[in-house]
Amino acid sequence: MFRFAQHDNKPTGLRIACHDTIGSMNAFWNSFETLLGLGVEPRNLTFVQISLRGIIVFLVTLAAVRLGHKRSLSRKTPFDAVLLVILAAVLSRAINGSAAFFATLGGAVVLVALHRLFAFLTFYSHRFGILVKGRPDVIVRDGQCDVSMMWRNHVSTHDLDEDMRLGVHTDDLSSIRVARVERSGDVSFIKK
Questions:
Q1: pLDDT tens digits along 26-38
Q2: Which domain range does residue 179 map to?
Q3: Residues 12, 6: contact at Cβ < 8 Å?
């Protein structure tokens, strides 16, 4: 609790007002701690406490991802998938109470900021982009499959046939000039 020294030159009314303000803030914080179950063993959290934690984590995550960039949810590259998996793992600990609530939220925001920094660096450095995101691999050139590159990317001939039918609406491999496994894992085609 906050105490004033005996030699404090503040008028008595000001000391009482400050003490009341601090007391109100402490009461608010104590009720907030109780509401969220901060400092409670995870097994003793109530339905309401876990629900409120989930709502707060959802809102903070939504704000953090929006401050990040849209591609982290749409592109699904390994670079972006790693962020989503780690965020889910870290933030679940804040909801279930197995980690400090606000420290976990702060750590999640730091992860999003790091992802954003890496995305910024990959924009300006192609080499860093290759290091972080990889590079596309050519699996078909002039209608001929590169079997070793297909094996390296775990693309079977059946997968290639399916992707050709879905992507370029053909099942004729000879009509394909180039097919690549992109950094996202999708197969792109350029017809002859």
A1: 766 677 787 788 8
A2: 136-191
A3: no
